[in-house]
C-alpha cells in the first residue's frame, strides 16, 4: 500500500489540473499564436509561469486505483501488477487463470 500522503498529494494535483485546465489552454494558445504581437505573447507566457506548478498535467503520475502504487501500472486496467495478481488469485478478474507448468 502506498503512503496515504502521496495518494492525497496526487488527488490535490488532479483537482488543480482540472481547475486550471481552461485558463492554461487559453494562455498556451495565446502564447503560440504568431499573429499576435511579441509583447502580448510574452505576457501570456509570464501569466502561464505564475500558475501553480501542480496545475500542469505533466506533474500527474499514474497510480493504482486499488493500492495507490505508482510503479508497474497497467493503463488499461488502472491498477498495478501486484493488485491484479491478488484479485486474479481470488477469482475476481473474469477470464484470468493462474498459469502453472
Topology:
Layout lengths: L3 H29 L5 H13 L22 E2 L4 E2 H10 L11
Antiparallel strand pairs: 1-2
Features:
101 residues; Helix Hairpins; two-stranded antiparallel sheet; single chain
How would you characterize the overall build of this protein?
Helices cover 51% and strands 4% of the residues. It is built from three helices and two strands, in the order ααββα. It has a two-stranded antiparallel ribbon with strand order 1-2. α1 runs antiparallel to α2.
Strand order of the largest sheet: 1-2
Low-confidence stretches: none
- Classified by CATH, the class of the largest domain is Mainly Alpha
The total of beta strands comes to 2
GO molecular function: rRNA binding; structural constituent of ribosome
Family: Belongs to the universal ribosomal protein uS14 family.
Organism: Rubrimonas cliftonensis
Keywords: Ribonucleoprotein, Ribosomal protein, RNA-binding, rRNA-binding
Amino acid at each position: 500500500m502506498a503512503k496515504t500522503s502521496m495518494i492525497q498529494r496526487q488527488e490535490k494535483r488532479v483537482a488543480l489540473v482540472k481547475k486550471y485546465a481552461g485558463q492554461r489552454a487559453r494562455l498556451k494558445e495565446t502564447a503560440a499564436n504568431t499573429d499576435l504581437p511579441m509583447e502580448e505573447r510574452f505576457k501570456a507566457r509570464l501569466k502561464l509561469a505564475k500558475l501553480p506548478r501542480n496545475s500542469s498535467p505533466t506533474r500527474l503520475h499514474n497510480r493504482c486505483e486499488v493500492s495507490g502504487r505508482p510503479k508497474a501500472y497497467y493503463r488499461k486496467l488502472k491498477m498495478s501488477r501486484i493488485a491484479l495478481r491478488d484479485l486474479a488469485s481470488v477469482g475476481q478478474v473474469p477470464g484470468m487463470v493462474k498459469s502453472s507448468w
